[in-house]
Specification:
The mean pLDDT is about 75. By secondary structure, this protein is an all-alpha fold. It has one domain (about 1-64). It contains four helices and no strands.
């Protein structure tokens, strides 16, 4: 189930970004019955988050 869901949303799934893909899947699974509030929560998170360059995302993967 997880494997097929990840394949449906990601064309290439490598070990490099696997933790982030799994976190996204867990979030969607845990909020699957409340889709309206999920959209609102994601919108608030996007607006509250500062822009993050790719080099900083790569650094975060090394520590997580």
């Amino acid at each position: 189930n997880v494997k097929n869901s990840l394949r449906g949303s990601c064309h290439k799934l490598g070990a490099k970004h696997l933790p982030r893909h799994l976190a996204e899947y867990c979030f969607r699974f845990n909020h699957r019955f409340d889709l309206k509030s999920m959209l609102v929560e994601l919108g608030h998170a996007v607006m509250a988050s500062p822009p993050m360059p790719y080099r900083l995302l790569k650094l975060a993967e090394g520590h997580g």
